[in-house]
């Protein structure tokens, strides 16, 4: 029996064969189909995309079959496709939404299901709640039918995965209702995305700068994007890990400093200007500077905001999560721009980008988007913007950072991921609720923010945030401080306070 399917920070994720089964995926697809129909979006159809993971393509076929059997036309991508490209295809086809089969940067045994509504950004909580309610209702209906000896859910899923010829009729969502089987179209969303992204990035300047860029799509759905876009504009590109490997070469498709060792070596060996990496579904970015150092998102986001404000002379607010660097706030203040602080999850940033016409939205975990793009994080766009910055300024990103630090001061930030047992989790959650110390690490606490977890802002502007992850079974402790020594002192103080 299916239990416990829920949408976390970004979609439903599960272990293949254990909870992420064909039957459960079909069940969630039916719940999404009900959502689409209830909101009058069925005629517009749904885009279905998938990453390079084990079975993702077949699961996508399964989902497509569920939709077409319920009268909802499907635009199925011809091959593995990045999440932001699947999201962009909604715009191109004026579709009613998209489903993306991906577990992003999780370990290989995982897969996942993201629903992207018609606005082409991650689904907001009121939408995923409605889908979860549909799931429970379908489960109940199945139980009742099962008790009456009717066919099991598994039979339904298999039947609906079959491609019916157009014009045939099948059982509709309500008993006795008949629905025409809808069309399925195989699409290549790349050309339209390529055209669009060229309106957001100065690829001409990148081409003229004679750059040499190393690319690592980490065996993921981003293969064929950065290298093709840059290569087509005369950039000398070399690419690694550009074949499908559902085991991700024994690592995780997460472009952090720890996992980009090969890219770093290649950048140094080839004396390249830049190394660009993507996560498993290419919505996150990883950047290596020409000296081989990893540029974390908390450094890249201020770099980019500064570039947009100065070199491009653009203006507009910035939306960041509660876990993201306050260096953005310093820049915004200097240029008299607003900052919006959101809970973790790009869905909140995307929403604010639309509502407040933000120039930049970004988060510590490696997601960003800019004005004019869809409200979805896009690692390909981030990589191209990094190349634009290097091309336009004729400097390495590290040199540009030095410029910013000399003007606005330097901040040191780090995230610790702390595993706990189930009982440990309850204990820490209990402590967090009460957490309200007057002093932390010798500094007065000035503000306690409970937007997502608990964030303590200290007298000198340093801050500490503790929250439970919505995608992994762990707590995250984020600290931003004025020196490395202070950073470690604050980490230690918080760990002691929570017994982590
Ligand atoms: O810290 P977590 O709740 O695990 O979330 C980490 C990240 O998960 C997903 O990738 C979301 O799209 C991001 O917006 C979020 O930052």
TrEMBL record:
Keywords, sorted A to Z: Isomerase, Magnesium, Metal-binding, Phosphoprotein
Span of domain Alpha-D-phosphohexomutase C-terminal: 444-496
EC nos: 5.4.2.2
Record GO biological process: carbohydrate metabolic process; purine ribonucleoside salvage
Cross-referenced CDD domains: PGM_like2
Pfam hit, one: PGM_PMM_I
Cofactors: Mg(2+)
Matching PROSITE patterns: PGM_PMM
Record-annotated Alpha-D-phosphohexomutase alpha/beta/alpha domain positions: 6-140, 192-292, 297-408
Pathway(s) served: Glycolipid metabolism; diglucosyl-diacylglycerol biosynthesis; Lipid metabolism
GO MF annotations, alphabetized: magnesium ion binding; phosphoglucomutase activity; phosphopentomutase activity
Record-linked InterPro entries: A-D-PHexomutase_a/b/a-I, A-D-PHexomutase_a/b/a-I/II/III, A-D-PHexomutase_a/b/a-II, A-D-PHexomutase_a/b/a-III, A-D-PHexomutase_C, A-D-PHexomutase_C_sf, A-D-PHexomutase_CS, Alpha-D-phosphohexomutase_SF
Catalytic activity: alpha-D-glucose 1-phosphate = alpha-D-glucose 6-phosphate
Family: Belongs to the phosphohexose mutase family.
UniProt name for this protein: Phosphoglucomutase
Organism, scientific name: Desulfofundulus thermobenzoicus
Higher taxonomy: Bacteria, Bacillati, Bacillota, Clostridia, Eubacteriales
């Amino acid at each position: 029996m299916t239990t416990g399917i829920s949408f976390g920070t970004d979609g439903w994720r599960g272990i293949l064969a254990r909870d992420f089964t064909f039957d459960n995926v079909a069940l969630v697809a039916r719940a999404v189909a009900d959502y689409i129909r209830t909101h009058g979006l069925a005629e517009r159809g749904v885009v279905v995309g998938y990453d390079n993971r084990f079975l993702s393509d077949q699961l996508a076929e399964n989902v497509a079959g569920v939709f077409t059997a319920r009268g909802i036309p499907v635009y199925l991508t011809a091959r593995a496709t990045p999440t932001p490209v699947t999201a962009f295809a909604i715009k191109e086809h004026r579709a009613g939404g998209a489903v993306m089969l991906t577990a992003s940067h999780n370990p290989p045994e995982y897969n996942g299901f993201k629903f992207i509504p018609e606005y082409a950004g991650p689904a907001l909580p009121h939408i995923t709640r409605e889908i979860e309610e549909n799931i429970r209702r379908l489960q109940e209906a199945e139980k009742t039918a099962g008790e009456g000896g009717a066919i099991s859910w598994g039979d339904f899923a298999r039947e609906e995965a079959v491609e019916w010829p157009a014009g045939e009729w099948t059982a509709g969502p309500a008993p006795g209702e008949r629905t025409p089987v809808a069309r399925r179209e195989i699409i290549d969303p790349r050309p339209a995305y390529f055209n669009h992204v060229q309106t957001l990035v100065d690829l001409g300047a990148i081409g003229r700068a004679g750059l040499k860029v190393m690319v690592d799509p980490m065996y993921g759905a981003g293969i064929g994007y950065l290298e093709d876009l840059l290569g087509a504009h005369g950039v000398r590109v070399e690419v690694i890990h550009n074949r499908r490997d559902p085991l991700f070469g024994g690592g995780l498709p997460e472009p952090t400093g720890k996992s980009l060792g090969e890219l770093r070596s290649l950048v140094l060996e080839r004396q390249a200007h830049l190394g660009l990496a993507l996560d498993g579904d290419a919505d996150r970015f990883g950047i290596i500077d020409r000296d081989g150092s990893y540029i974390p998102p908390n450094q890249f986001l201020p770099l980019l905001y500064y570039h947009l404000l100065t070199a491009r002379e653009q203006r507009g607010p910035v939306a960041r999560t509660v876990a993201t660097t306050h260096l953005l706030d310093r820049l915004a203040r200097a240029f008299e721009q607003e900052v919006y602080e959101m809970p973790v999850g790009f869905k909140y940033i995307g929403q604010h980008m639309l509502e407040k016409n933000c120039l930049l939205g970004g988060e510590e975990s490696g997601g960003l988007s800019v004005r004019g793009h869809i409200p979805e994080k896009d690692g390909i766009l981030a990589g191209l913007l990094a190349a634009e910055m290097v091309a336009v300024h004729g400097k390495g990103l590290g040199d540009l950072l030095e410029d910013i630090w000399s003007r606005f001061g330097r901040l040191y930030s780090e995230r610790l991921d702390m595993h706990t047992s189930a009982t440990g989790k309850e204990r820490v959650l209990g402590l967090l609720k009460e957490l309200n110390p007057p002093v932390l690490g010798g500094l007065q606490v000035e503000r306690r923010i409970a937007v997502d977890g608990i964030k303590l802002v200290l007298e000198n502007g340093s801050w500490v945030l503790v929250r439970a992850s919505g995608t992994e079974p762990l707590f995250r402790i984020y600290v931003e401080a004025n020196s490395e020594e202070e950073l470690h002192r604050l980490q230690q103080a918080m760990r002691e306070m929570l017994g982590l």
